[in-house]
Amino acid sequence: MESGPFFTLSPSTGKVAVGVRRASVANDSYCTGITVIDRKGAARLIDAGPGVAFFRFEDFYGTNGFSSGITKLITPRWSADGRMLAYLKLVGGRLQLRLWDAQRGARTIGADPQDIADFQFSADGAMVIYKVRDEAAQLLALKQESRSGFHYDDRYFPFASTRPFPKGRPSYLYKAIRLADGTVRAATQAEVAWLDGPVAPSQPEGAVRPKTVRDANGVDHVAAIRGASEIRCGSETCAQVEGMPWLSVKGAVRYVRREGWARSEMAIYEWTIGSAQPRRLYATSDLLIDCTPIADDVLCGREGSTRPRYLDRISLETGRSSALFDPNPAFDKLSLGRVERLQWKNDRGIECFGDLTYPPDYEQGRPYPLIVVQYESRGFLRGGTGDEYPVQLFAREGYLVLTVQRPRSPLFGLGLSSIERQRRQNEGFDERRSILSAYETKVRQLIDAGIADPERIGITGLSDGSTTVQYAALHSTLFKAAAVSGCCWEPSQTWVLGSSLQANYERLGWPASPDDKPQMWADISLTRNASRVAFPILMQAADGEYLVALEAVRALKAARRPVDLYVFPDEVHIKRHPAHRAGIYRRNLLWFDFWLRGKKPSGPGQDADEVARWADMQRQSQGTAADGGNGGASGH
To answer: Could you report the per-residue pLDDT of 305-363, keeping only the tens digit for each?
Structure first.
């Protein structure tokens, strides 16, 4: 995945540049732009246009170009003197390089028929070095191959596409443009090295450069380089570092780390090089992102449970903060449900945390239907991972919403490689049982407290969250309805996934064929256990993923277990279209209203037609006594 800040600070003027994005459901489109903010918080939109770029993998199991649906990170970059700003913008369907200054405004430079992937100002600021993702040759080769038929090999991922993906990593063309006259030429080797791996600027003897060091468990620790020596901080509070450390005005190292219960809090520390213990300067349960020094304060992207991302300037001397830029200034005018941070342990004794969102008109003394949303609970509670389960919309319609952060692995701290760790996690679905225990433990506590109604508990999930829902369908009696963004782990995956992806899953312990490891299929497959599935399941899948769900859908329908599948065109793992997301929001609410509350639309229309189909599923399920049918709850 991409890394880098989403905003940048001019080293000389103190101005901040940040990318902004707005979705339009009516037009099923996006508008993206770049905003510049001065020291006083005055914001100016300097460039904007239609469309949004999405991240594509450079290496997806030996191929390139595979899309996950995650928006591409756009990092604006300032020239050293702060007079010019460069950034990428989608122009005519291609990512192009743009340059802005106060005198001439925004303009495209180095126009190219292919996507520009990255760029950097030269050290003297006279040029911009950039690289172009050169896909023309690979795409032409695939077009020529299509004339005689594609050979089915490890370039194929049948669930995602009927065509093979380009083999190997993409090629890049490196170029340099002279800003004085717009002349473009091939970049030199030194310029390529500057762009792909900028060398740290030369420093006087004895100067300090902060850094992080990663241990065998993937945990970053703060350290510093002084001359030719590396000095590491040995304190526990110098671990779990987020982002890059920086130097204070007085030369101490400052950094952000996760800490507290289940690492649910974020704090900023100061370490005097050579001292045994750092000093905590600031702490919050909010999410802090890409913190960077601004004078002796710090500027961070910040999110609260009920506040979307904004830029916040924090005084580390006083602990006070003030919003420098808020792209959603009217959001606080909305009537939102109260959010309560919860802490508990699962049956393994692992610390867990989440947030409970109450209906705005919540009344004590009566139990409410509850929906579990996975699997992140840091920052703004929008719609869970993938943003398909709208927390505040559910709350407004009378639901308690429990958003849960996925607990750490029971194998954390053993120094295992990623493959070995995942392989062990899949043995007997040990980690899945730990995750499910985290959710069930807190839900049962809420039931015992008289807050949640045990007969009206729903669960949702995308990706890893969908896996937990699938496991819960066979190993839990707590949930009464579910909605997932894709599904399922089934025997057909051994050929639907494609040979390279399947080979990777085999390394992680998954079966090599439908007949391999029967106990594993018995523990997870809905197809092999259709009559045991405990609750109705709504699947709203991308057309780039729905094939892996068909085996389970067929089996559940044959067993008269309630299941419904919707397929969204031009979509991948994370849904991209605003209109689709709005439709998904609507149907998820409709689904839970029917199965958990017995609610039906009052008039004709699409909603009524969908609910009528679900009511028919309900009747069939209740009429199959051997299935132990699960009907909707009575309305409230």
So the answer is: 999 999 999 999 999 999 999 999 999 999 999 999 999 999 999 999 999 999 999 99
- Alpha-carbon distance 18 to 2, whole Å? 17
Residue pair 21/30 in contact (Cβ under 8 Å)? The answer is yes
Residue 440 annotated among the catalytic residues of the structure: no
Clarify whether 573 is annotated catalytic.
Answer: yes
CB-based contacts of 605, cutoff 8 Å, min separation 6: none
Rounded to whole angstroms, the Cα distance separating 13 from 314 reads: 19
DSSP 8-state code for residue 113: S
Write phi, then psi, for 219 (nearest 5 degrees): -95, 130
* Signed CA dihedral, 530, 479, 617, 628: sign only: positive
Active site annotation includes 545: yes
DSSP structural state of residue 72: P
Say how many Å lie between the first and final Cα of the chain, rounded: 45
Rounded Cα gap, residues 542 and 486, in angstroms: 7
Looking at the DSSP assignment, which residues form a beta bridge with residue 176? 129, 185
- Within 13 Å of residue 213, how many CA atoms lie on the same side as its CB? 13
Whether pTM > 0.90 for this model: the answer is yes
Residue among 256, 542, 196 at smallest CA distance from 386:
542
Residues 545, 551, 571, 610: which is the catalytic one? 545
- Tell me whether residue 565 is exposed, middle or buried, using C-beta atoms within 10 angstroms of its C-beta: 0 to 12, 13 to 18, 19 or more: middle
- How big is the CA angle at 533 (ends 530 and 534), to the nearest 5 degrees? 160
Residue 559: what residue type?
A: A
Among residues 191, 551, 573, 621, which one is catalytic? 573
What DSSP string runs through 151-219?
Answer: --STT--TTT-SSPPPBSSPEEEEEEEETTT--EEEPPHHHHHHHHSPPPPP--TT-EEEEEEE-TTS-
